[in-house]
Amino acid sequence: MSVLLSLLLFFLIWFNGALLAVLVKTKSFIEVLGLGFILGSFAFTLAILFYHMLSGHPIDDSAVFIVSGGITLLLAPILPRLFALMKKSKSVFTRTLKISLLLKIIIGILFTLVLVSAIQNLFWPITDWDAMALYDFRARVVAETGSFSLGRELGYFYQYPPFTSLLHTSVYVLGFQRAKIWYSFLYGSFLLVFFSLSRKQTSISLSLFATLTLAVNPLISEHAIIAYTNLAYTMFLGLGIIYLWQWFADKNMQTFILGSVLIAASSWVRSSEPFWLVGVVLLIGIVFLSVKHKMLRNFAAAVLGVAFIFWVRAIWPSFTEPFLSATTEHFELTSDVNTGAEMISQAPGLSEYFKIFLSSGSSMLFIHLIEVSTYFTENVAPVFGLYLMPGMVLLFFDIKRKQYRSLLHWTTTIVYIFLIFLGTFLFSFTFDSWNEIGGSANRMSMFLIPLFIFSIFTSKTLREWVEKIK
Amino acid sequence: MKILNQKYFLSTAISFSLSLAGIVTYEFLYQEKIVLFFSVLFTILSFLFASQLSKEVLEKFRKTLKIILFLMTILVLTHFVVNSFDFYGEFSPPELFYTLKFHRLITLSGALLVHITTLIVGLWFIASKYTNKIRLSFSISLIMLLFLSSLVVYHTEQILATDYKTTAQVFLNMNTNFEDRITYRFGGASYFGWIWPYTQFIKRRTSENSSIIIPPQSPTWKMEGNVGFLRWFLYPRKLINISLDSAVTDQADYALIALGECDEGDCGWPKINIPAEKIEYIVLIDRETQEETIITDRAYTLNKDEFKWGIIKLR
Fold first, then answer.
1. Do B155 and A465 touch (CB under 8 A)?
2. Which of B152, B167, B229 comes nearest A212 by C-beta?
3. Is B182 in CB contact (< 8 Å) with chain A?
4. Do A442 and A410 share a domain, yes or no?
5. Crossing angle of helices A61-74/A29-55, nearest 10°?
6. Test mutation, A116, A117, A205, chain B, max B CBs within 10 A
7. Record: contact A141-B170, CB cut-off 8 A
């Protein structure tokens, strides 16, 4: 019974997401297929927390279906549009049959990878350290008690937004223990949307190669079978930024609505890192360009997009605030569960840093610079190191060919790398154990992978090269 | 022209010698990425000079590549054949196997071999097809495409190998209960996997609303001393960390007996003895047989041979 109920829940969540995708006028069948779980899981977790907050109803099996069913009812008027799009599925299938053998093999490999991840996730229980310490533990407590209120007693509980925990809870309350299956859904959806976004900018063969490169990346594939937040974060932030880039190519309102929603969703998974800010900067760029091109609707939507990101970021702190202020006793967990992101959340303000810099001598700054560079090379650079050389070569040729869109992609990516370096440099002054979180820094930089791969494979130069070889 | 030819051959030679050096001198150039970096760098250099070359030289280049490709194929096949034997089991290879350092072929990464073979096949393909139109930008484009394809092949090979291994593990554990698979995932009961039978034992022996004193968090008690981790297994029981030199007082209902990892430091816990009048009973669990023994009317004294794993019910 629990399996059947969980299947129904998975379907409803996917269906809601697909309806939301159609609502913002997504036209590609594959994109809607992928966005189903991405938007559906975000909307569901957000809505169930609101339902719990406003009605006081515990988060239990009935709440799960009231919320998911309620969203379906609300979106029911869009059903005909979704069904019309579904009819396209046949043509997608016939087109797939016509592609070359090599591309069919790539599709086969991609399918196998998602299937194997699903088998693994269904078969093995959760044994991932951070998930046991927080994300899954929190889900089990909420499933048992119906609320987050015990968090103040339990100490390490509110530090991260609840996205993955609520996904786990949603199946635990139905009696289904294999919550890791969510990560296969996210992995598969990530690949589908990444493919369809690449396809908008390049050929089918290059977009399939790009998707394969993403799917087989060691970090991404590793996270497809562990219950951490990093895959969901990478998916939301990476795709969000790519959607915003897409706007500069097609000036379509749908792309940046999705871009802002996904960037907001990334803050619903992990909120300590400042990477969402780059998305806001891109959105502000869109605001200015909309004014310049007199696209008033785009202007209004971009402003709303920025507001939405800030609103989503504010939900979790305002929800947990009453629990935290109700206690004076503070739990100190001097354990491995104190991760990099937690350190970030405890970081002092910028003015504090200026004081520290002024009081340190120039030799001290130099020593830190060398230490941080070494640490960065060892822990962060390997995440994207292999893509750096082809990326820079392609950027050079793209600029030579006056393909300036590449410049936007690479500027964003390089700003991100700089932000990670700067962040690490600042922490090196305030936290003695700053260099003991190599694994955390590595995972934190994971979102750069889709950005690098997308920028490389959608380069016009690369496409010309491939055509020349043919 | 003559100088260019020499440089060209030199760079190609260095490129492949480094790749092969990486394979043969396991300790020296073990890092796959170093090999990968150098082979790509030197191949780019080779192409820069290749644009200046005559047909005769390119013909020699093709022949050289063919020989290397042949040798690599043998190497790849040997690697897979050698790996198919169970060297840690009953099969024992002759001494000559070690003298000739064939054993290094076992520990070598298959992905590295596949990568280098792809690189050579690509170079051969380029040298054969584009003899007459190699220009600087064109050679760079070919190298980049080659690099990206070999990267995809390399990562795909890695993940498929891992998937194959983990799927095999799924079949091996088909008959184990869902939750008991935690033991296997943590490396078995003789390793971190012990945490599952141990915490199941604690759950059986304590009530849900009880409080339990646990060792301090340190490398010796990575799991047993980590409240954040251990609570996943024992919630809603309340876990209380105390320091090494603190006495186990009556602030809790139970105290863990946890040997910990003796390789990591001074193991055995609690460190402070507990008098018999403060103890209701002690239950010990044997790590190997999981047999439980109940002891009453006894004081607890730190004795690593007798008190390894268990729980003390405090009065």
1. no
2. B152
3. yes
4. yes
5. 120
6. A116
7. no
CB-based contact A51:A106 (threshold 8 Å): no
Same domain for A327 and A292, yes or no, is yes
Task: Tell whether the torsion through CA atoms of A138, A139, A140 and A141 is positive or negative.
Answer: positive
Residue B186 touches chain A, beta carbons under 8 Å: yes
- Both structure tokens of B46: 């080779």
DSSP state of A131: I
What residues of A are in contact with residue B231 (Cβ under 8 Å)?
137, 154
Q: Which of A307, A339, A371 lies at the terminal end of a domain, its last residue? A: A339
Residue A403 lies in a domain: yes
Q: Which of A209, A337, A465 sits opposite B228 (nearest CB)?
A: A337
Is the Cβ pair B185, A136 closer than 8 Å?
Answer: no
C-beta separation of A373 from B138 below 8 A:
no
pLDDT band at B106 (very low <50, low <70, confident <90, very high): low
Question: Quick check: A389 and B166 CB within 8 A?
Answer: no
* Contact at CB, A125 and B178, closer than 8 angstroms: yes
Q: Measured between CA atoms, how close is A225 to chain B, in angstroms?
A: 11
* Inter-chain CB proximity A127 and B186 less than 8 Å: yes
Tell me how far apart the alpha carbons of residues B254 and B212 are, in angstroms, rounded to a whole number. Answer: 5
pLDDT in the model for residue A159? 84
The amino acid that residue A181 corresponds to is I
Query: Do the beta carbons of residue A445 and residue A380 sit within 8 Å?
Result: yes
> Is residue A365 domain-shared with residue A310, that is, in the same domain?
no
Contact A341, A273 (CB under 8 A): yes
pLDDT tens per residue across span A187-214: 999 999 999 999 999 999 999 999 999 9
Answer whether residue A29 is part of any domain.
Answer: no
Same domain, A386 and A310: no
Classify residue A299: in a domain, yes or no. yes
Last residue of one domain, picked from the residues A298, A319, A339 = A339
Is A404 part of any domain? Answer: yes
Query: pLDDT tens digit string along B223-272?
Result: 889 998 999 999 999 998 888 777 776 678 999 999 988 888 788 888 88
Domain count, chain A: 2
Both A364 and A401 in one domain: the answer is yes
Other Cβ atoms closer than 10 A to B191: 11
Q: Which residues pair with B283 in a beta bridge?
A: B294, B311
Query: Between these two residues, A414 and B8, which has the higher pLDDT value?
Result: A414
Give the residue numbers spanning the domain of A265.
Answer: 236-339
Interface test with B, best of A159, A335, A457, A466 (most B CBs within 10 A): A335
Indicate yes or no: CB of B181 within 8 angstroms of CB of A124: yes
> Do A360 and A389 reside in the same domain of the chain?
yes
Q: Could you report the per-residue pLDDT of B155-181, keeping only the tens digit for each?
A: 887 788 788 778 888 888 888 999 999
Q: Which residue of B has its CA nearest to A122?
A: B178
